[in-house]
């Protein structure tokens, strides 16, 4: 028998306040089913494709059956997911103006198959319109598989945050970093996005996107509640005035308007729900006119280092690309 204080360190409860799942050795499991249904809806509904013959959009998530979960064992994450998905699509033939509808069925999205090999079946209601069906079978299927890949990426990053707890070695490293930070005098300005007393490593981001629309229209998409809800495909609470707070993506994004120059600039305090408490980044959107288009310049300061990739994904996929799709629909509907 091992002496007191000796033995396999995998089973020893370290000096942690919570004292749970030390060294990530024990089996833990988190149900991802509800989260996944919301994420699949967010990524799939609203996908648009277009060519010289017509334009199509995935208009609704008709069915999503299955389950997903993530397990942690010995410091490793194990994923299980199995989905049967049905989507409704609609389209319009440019020359004749004829409208058609159809279905997209994904009978088996699971960890047993690569996303590129996942079966995607496209069908159309009776009648003409095979041009649109072909468009959905080619470009549409490619975009659906891309969205499924984005779902799996989010499942393995966004959903799993906090599942791997810090070990004693990691905690020691964290303590060393904190001590170094405490020995450094930080000049915190009043406009700093980091709350007083919160010292975390951050990065700055710069992104640009070109939109085929007038400045006035693009500015409205960021400041009018109905348009924000359309591109985000989720409830929003906002009133675009200096000092007013806002919520987007079902409360996952919150913040406050710092400055608004109509059709020129928007500055916001901005945070994700899973960021350190009371920590905000400063997001500045500059609207720059070009020949018949508008360039949106995004500058963001104060993003937690560990959230850099998620922040880029959020703005590129959930803002820029969704707004591009919304603008196509606005143009299509006249």
UniProtKB/TrEMBL annotation:
Residues covered by the Activator of Hsp90 ATPase AHSA1-like N-terminal domain: 29-163
GO molecular function: ATPase activator activity; protein-folding chaperone binding
InterPro entries with a match to the protein in the record: Aha1 (IPR036338), AHSA1-like_N (IPR015310), ASHA1/2-like_C (IPR013538), START-like_dom_sf (IPR023393)
UniProt-listed SMART domains: Aha1_N (SM01000)
Any one GO cellular component localisation term in the record: cytosol
GO terms classed as biological process: protein folding
Signal peptide bounds: none
Gene3D superfamilies found in the cross-reference section: 3.30.530.20, Activator of Hsp90 ATPase Aha1, N-terminal domain
Family affiliation: Belongs to the AHA1 family.
Name of this protein: Activator of Hsp90 ATPase AHSA1-like N-terminal domain-containing protein
């Amino acid at each position: 028998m091992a002496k007191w204080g000796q033995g396999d360190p995998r089973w020893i409860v370290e000096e942690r306040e919570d004292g749970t799942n030390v060294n990530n050795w024990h089996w833990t499991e988190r149900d991802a089913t509800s989260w996944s249904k919301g994420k699949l809806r967010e990524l799939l509904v609203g996908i648009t494709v277009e060519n010289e013959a017509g334009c199509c959009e995935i208009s609704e998530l008709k069915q999503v059956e299955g389950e997903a979960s993530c397990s942690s064992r010995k410091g490793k994450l194990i994923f299980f997911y199995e989905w049967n998905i049905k989507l409704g699509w609609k389209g319009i033939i440019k020359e004749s103006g004829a409208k058609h509808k159809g279905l997209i069925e994904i009978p088996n999205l699971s960890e047993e198959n690569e996303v590129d090999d996942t079966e995607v079946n496209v069908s159309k209601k009776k009648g003409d319109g095979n041009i649109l069906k072909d468009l959905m079978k080619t470009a549409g299927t490619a975009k659906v598989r891309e969205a499924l890949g984005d779902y799996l990426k989010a499942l393995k990053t966004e959903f799993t945050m906090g599942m791997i707890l810090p070990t004693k070695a990691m905690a020691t490293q964290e303590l060393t970093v904190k001590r170094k930070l405490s020995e450094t005098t930080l000049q915190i300005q009043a406009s700093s996005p980091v709350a007083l007393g919160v010292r975390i490593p951050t990065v700055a981001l710069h992104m640009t996107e070109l939109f085929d629309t007038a400045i006035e229209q693009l500015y409205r998409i960021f400041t009018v509640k109905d348009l924000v809800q359309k591109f985000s495909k989720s409830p929003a609470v906002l009133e675009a005035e200096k000092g007013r707070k806002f919520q987007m993506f079902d409360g996952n994004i919150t913040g406050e308007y710092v400055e608004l120059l109509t059709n020129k600039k928007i500055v916001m305090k901005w945070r994700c729900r899973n960021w350190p408490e009371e920590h905000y980044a400063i997001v500045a959107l500059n609207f720059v006119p070009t020949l018949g288009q508008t360039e949106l310049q995004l500058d963001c300061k104060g993003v937690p280092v560990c959230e850099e990739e998620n922040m880029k994904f959020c703005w590129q996929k959930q803002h820029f690309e969704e707004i591009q799709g919304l603008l196509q629909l606005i143009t299509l509907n006249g």
